[in-house]
Amino acid sequence: xxxxxxxxxxSPGPVSxxxxxxxxxxxxxxxxxxxxxxxxxxxxxIRLASGQAPAKRTTLPGPDGARLPVRRFRVAVVxxxxxxxxxxxxxxxxxxxxxxxxxxxxxxxxxxxxRVSFALGDGTLVDFQADFVAIGDQAAEEVLxxxxxxxxxxxxxxxxxxxxxxxxxxxxxxxxxxxxxGPSWHGVLxxxxxxxxxxxxxxxxxxxxxxxxxxxxxxxxxQPSGLSPAAENVRNLPGxxxxxxxxxxxxxxxxxxxxxxxxxxxxxxxxxxxPEFSDAVHVAQHELEPxxxxxxxxxxxxxxxxAAVLGQRVPSGQWRITDELVGEAGTGPTRFxxxxxxxxxxxxxxxxxxxxxxxxxxxxxxxADKVAGEKTWIEIVxxxxxxxxxxxxTNAKIPRWEAVxxxxxxxxxxxxxxxxSPRCKLLRAGFNAEYRFRRKHTQDEQYDEExxxxxxxHPHDGLQYLCLWGGENIExxxxxxxxxxxxxxxxxxxxxxxxxxx
Length: 502
Known about the structure:
Blueprint: H1 14-21, E1 26-30, H2 37-50, E2 59-61, E3 67-79, H3 82-96, E4 103-106, E5 112-119, E6 125-134, H4 140-144, E7 151-154, H5 162-169, E8 187-192, H6 200-206, H7 210-216, E9 218-222, H8 243-250, H9 253-259, E10 270-272, H10 279-282, E11 296-301, E12 307-313, E13 319-326, H11 333-347, E14 356-360, H12 377-385, E15 388-391, H13 397-408, E16 411-412, E17 415-416, E18 418-420, H14 425-434, E19 436-439, E20 447-451, H15 457-487
Parallel strand pairs: 1-8, 1-9, 3-6, 3-7, 7-8, 11-14, 13-18, 14-15
Antiparallel strand pairs: 2-3, 4-5, 5-6, 10-19, 11-12, 12-13, 16-17, 19-20
């Protein structure tokens, strides 16, 4: 029997409203804890069901017994475990559609089905079915293969595997059958907290540009930080506007970034080298194009995975990091120089050679047998690219880190002192999580003093040399000199925590 459900609902905020209006095939609503994501997606599913075209051959009895046109919609709500499904997802569902409405079957720790029909003002009925299921220890295909649904709702997508995401995309649009009219819309709905930087969700969706997401058919809707004046759903939280600031105070530092500030963050495997970096502040919304008439610097790391980072320091003092290039393991200087020459030809055509300069790890200037006529790594790369390459002033780790930290903490006319193009995916992943001090195996939180060597460390070394080339080395020396004068002795230690050899 059809019922009149009270589906009155007010959107948590502008981002949630845009999500509600989207008809993209793959939609993700991302936000901090408590931002109303789950309820928003559930209401979106009901709204989509209400917009489904009436079936061609199926009718249902209305309140007066007469058979009415019916809009048929089936969604599979997927969670990582049955414990979480019954502990959080299903209770949230019951706040919008009470258990006693329609027909609900299922027991805790197992799949459940809720089927309900409700009347619309146009004289049609909505036949809505929600299947609740968890993946657990099974393969995604094993769990999802039998479902013929209009849509999937992947609840807490950041907790699900990429396999679930990929397989769900292949199973939508199977209901209602085509001989009964087929679905007016079908696809995948999802919500997620900000993901861990090592995760597939970060690499595949959050790191992608708008153009790349568009090509995938993915629409990502990111709610503001809980600490932002524009935070969503605040009116429904205990304490109102004080909710997130109070939560921030009692939340572990490693968890605040993801769960409250809604920025991708790192797991507890390590501590990032640059905690000053903010993905929302320091990453440009669109790819940065090189600016003509301004010198181009290239920071080079001659490692097992050689790397180059290209950027410009504009007259205001802001760094614009436009490109990164990383060779495969074992790439020699000749091949890497050729790779860099191709990138320069493609992206920096028309730049005069005198406006391009490379700066490399000082160790790359040594090691060649001059008697035998050998060339150093720097000389070979310079020959292949046709640009000048000189050694960086130092390869000491702390001055290099500080050369990047200074622009990250600098504000210039309201703009960040360093802005990163979304093209630089390894640099971005490193800033957010993977360029880090690895945690030691101790009971308290202690970390190694050396940054972990991994795929992202090589372009980060290149970025450090680039910033030294662009004058941050001078700023460091100036600050050291001031502190030495105040101390009246030498050497001294900077307030940032490192000693610098003058």
